[in-house]
Amino acid sequence: MTDDAGYESTPTSEALIAAARTEFTRRGFDGARVARIAAEAGVNKERIYGYFGSKEGLFEVVMAKALTEHVEHSPFLEGQTLTEHVMAAYDHHRRDPELVRLLMWESLHYDADEGRTPPFSDGRREFYRRKVERLRAVTGGTDDLRAAVALYAAIGLQAAPFMIPQLGAIILDRPISDDEVQQMLRPLIEQTVRFIEQRLTEQA
């Protein structure tokens, strides 16, 4: 059986993906070691190349699966506002910040400013294009770039606390997971995203 991410799904390949997901989340692409991934999965490291072609191919599958799971937990539903969608994503990241960490590591490996984008970015580009179209629809038909900038800003707002939790702990003198912090932080982010959405509607 071939998975949607383009690899043969077997107990061995799934064990490798699970081990790789932990390794990449903890150490990033450059810090991850195929020998460690294989050992955790209980197989020879040559199986990684047999299933995925390379360490980068394995990373591609890990990212694809993590993104698919995120979409399943917080899809941009028809009729849903940007604020509702973004805050659903925020709540998902709060429960499981793994995807945010993977994206941070990915940004270090593929430097867009140097023209290095992930080799598997075309599918994601289409995914976000559809999000921009959905945002245009719910805000009254603003232009693509304005909607894309608003979406990017909103994503940054909801993801930032989980990208730099160490800075939050320094500033707040407590972890961002603290209930009292969340009771203040979540509404503040929600209000800011709602302002972005309102401005987008006014400019349509």
Structure description:
This is DNA-binding transcriptional regulator, AcrR family. One of its GO terms (molecular function) is DNA binding. Keywords: DNA-binding. Residues 33-52 bind DNA. This protein has helices at 11-31, 34-41, 46-52, 55-73, 82-95, 98-109, 121-139, 144-163, 165-172, 179-203. The model has no long low-confidence stretch (mean pLDDT 90). The protein has two domains: 1-62, Arc Repressor Mutant, subunit A (Orthogonal Bundle); 74-203, no CATH class. It has ten helices and no strands. The chain has 204 residues and is an all-alpha fold. Helix 3 packs across helix 4 (55-73), helix 7 crosses helix 8 (144-163) and helix 8 (144-163) packs antiparallel against helix 10 (179-203).
